[in-house]
Amino acid sequence: RQVLILFLVLGVALAGWESRRYSVMEETESGSSVANLAKDLGLGVGELAARGARVVSEDNKPHLQLDLQTGELILNEKLDREEMCGPTDPCVMHFQVLLKKPLGVFRAELLVRDINDHSPEFPEREMTLKILEASPLGTMFPLKKAQDLDVGT
């Protein structure tokens, strides 16, 4: 009986630990809405303010804010995927929504999706190719590989 109660308590406690997932394109304008947290958490808009809700990111930087009047999760700044995560893919920012009175913690993550905002760059600005006049049609001439900060193809 005690084991059954222990599993029941653990199950209820862990049920609230499932992370909510959101997604945004990098370079989205500051002030843009990511999601309606009040709706996603099943809370009334007034309840967020009454319970002292706030958003805390893993790196303690104010990337996101919660509008207590509307329940909207809003971008505080443009996010640069390459600056945040470098070549790591996917780029995920973890954060929590903290509620006081009664205490509640909701984990969430924001996937910052890449846009093609960097041009490929070659290691050298200029390259000299010496091509013989007698080269057959369709001959290929390899170039040094260009570097691109964007992820993917």
Automatic annotation (TrEMBL):
A GO-annotated cellular component: plasma membrane
Gene Ontology process terms (BP): homophilic cell adhesion via plasma membrane adhesion molecules
Gene3D superfamilies in UniProt: Cadherins
Location of the protein in the cell: Membrane
Signal peptide from the UniProt entry: 1-15
Pfam families, sorted: Cadherin_2
Positions of the Cadherin N-terminal domain: 20-101
PROSITE patterns reported in the protein's UniProt record: CADHERIN_1
Domain of life: Eukaryota
Coiled coil: none
Membrane topology: Single-pass membrane protein
Nucleus among keywords: no
GO molecular function terms listed in the Swiss-Prot or TrEMBL record: calcium ion binding
Assigned keywords, A-Z: Calcium, Cell adhesion, Glycoprotein, Membrane, Repeat, Signal, Transmembrane, Transmembrane helix
Matches recorded under PANTHER family: CADHERIN-87A, PROTOCADHERIN BETA-15
Full protein name: Protocadherin beta-15
Species of the source: Neovison vison
Gene: PCDBF
